[in-house]
Specification:
With 152 residues, the chain is an alpha+beta fold. It has 2 domains: 56 residues; 94 residues, no CATH class. Helices cover 46% and strands 25% of the residues.
Length: 152
């Protein structure tokens, strides 16, 4: 009988220890899951700020026409509208057309190509040595959807 009680106590202790280990594993898993989710959120915010930092650098800054042409060439695949107003008064949209304002709204893809910006005979020619004042526009989600450049 004494052996039966001792076996029962060992068996019960084994169950209690097993349950304690399972509880600790569940606690560690749930805590680490929250930490990982929070870290992923912070990384996404950081990545967004890095990718937008290239574009926010144009806000209220005077840049050369060469920089404007370079931007148009390099953001062709992004959902971004680039409006260029030249010294002749020609207004062209590259990438996407947009409705500027607060908030700005992204429109349909623009048919204007980079070739008109670099063709000196085109009314939309961007003088590479010209100076352009940039303005950045965001949509309702605070995402940059348009940049406007006006030749000074």
């Amino acid at each position: 009988m004494n052996e039966n009680i001792l076996s029962f106590i060992k068996w019960a202790a084994g169950i209690v220890i097993t349950l304690a280990i399972i509880s600790i594993v569940i606690l560690i898993f749930s805590t680490s899951k929250e930490a990982v989710s929070e870290s992923i959120g912070k990384l996404n915010e950081f990545q967004t700020s890095i990718s937008e930092s290239e574009l926010t650098g144009f806000d209220q800054e005077i840049v050369s026409g060469a920089e404007v042409v370079y931007l148009i060439k390099n953001v062709r695949d992004d959902q971004l509208g680039i409006q260029v107003t030249t010294g002749t008064g020609s207004v062209s949209w590259y990438g996407y057309s947009c409705t500027l304002g607060t908030p700005a709204t992204l429109g349909s893809p623009s048919a204007t190509t980079i070739s008109s910006a670099i063709d000196e005979t085109s009314s939309g020619y961007i003088n590479k040595s010209g100076k352009f004042l940039g303005a950045v526009y965001r949509d309702a989600n605070e995402t940059i959807v348009a940049i406007s450049f006006a030749q000074q």
